Amino acid sequence: MQSPDVVLNIQNMSVVYETTRGPLTALSKLDLQVRKGEFVAVLGPSGCGKSTLLKVVSGLLGIAEGEVTVSGQKIVGPRKDVGIVFQQPTLLPWKTVRENVLVPIRAQRLPKAQYEAEADRLLNLVGLGNFGGYLPHELSGGMQQRAGIARGLIHDPAVLLMDEPFAALDALTRERMTDELQSIWMETKKTVVFITHSIQEAVYLADKVVVLSGRPGTKVLELDVNLERPRTLDTMASPRFSEVANRLREMFGAGKRNL
Ligand code: ADP
Ligand code: MG
Residue 163 C-alpha to ligand 1 middle, in angstroms? Predict the structure, then answer.
C-alpha cells in the first residue's frame, strides 16, 4: 500500500523513443517516490534521461512500461498541476516579466484577475518586486531565471520540476540562486524534483538525492541527506556534507562503466 503522502509515484518505468535509427530506450525500470513537501535532487550523466523523466511527469511524453501517478492519478496527458522551470528562462520577449509569470494562467484558461495578486506576491518572493513591468531582455540571466521560477509556481502546482535551472548562469550567480531557491522552498514547502549535474548543489538543496546510471537511465543510488535547514556555508564545511558528497562522488567514480 502506497503511503498517502506520496505525491509523485514512479514504478518500474521505461521510456522508449522512436528514432530514425529505431527504438531507443532512454529510461529503464525506474522507481522513484517523492513525498509531499520533499525536495528531491536527481543527478546523472548527460543523456541519461533526466529531461525525459521530467517530460513524462509533466505529461508530454508517454511511457513504454510501468506506472506513473501524480497525486494518485495516472498521467494520461499534459498536466495542469505540474510546474516546470527550464535550463533556459524561455520567457516571451515581447511580454513584461509580470505577464510572463501569468502565462500558465492564460494557457490553462484560468481567471487571470484572480492570479494578479499572486503574481505580485511571487515576484516579491523571488526578489523581482520592482521588475514586473520590465521586458525580459532588461533583466540579467539570474533575474530571468527567477522570473521562470515565479512562472513555475503561479498556478500552485502539486509538483515543481526544475531541469538544471542554474546551469546557464555564472558561478557566483549560481551560488546565490541556490541559496535563494532554498529560501523559496522553505517558504512555499513545494514538492520539488530538481535535476542537476552538480553534486554540491544536490547535497545543499535536497532532502534526498537520486543518482541515475548512464543511458538507459535507471536508479543506482538513493541517499537521504539528513542535514538541518537552513543550510549555509557552514553546512558545506560540515562532516555530514562531505560524507554525502563523497558517497555521491564515489558513485560516479566507481560506476564509470555504468554512468
Ligand atoms: P539528459 O536530460 O539526462 O541529458 P535526455 O532525457 O534529454 O537526457 O535524453 C535521454 C536520451 O534520450 C538521450 O540519449 C537522447 O539520445 C534520447 N532522446 C532525447 N530526446 C529525444 C527525442 N525527442 N527523440 C529521440 N531520442 C531522444
Ligand atoms: Mg537534460
Answer: 13
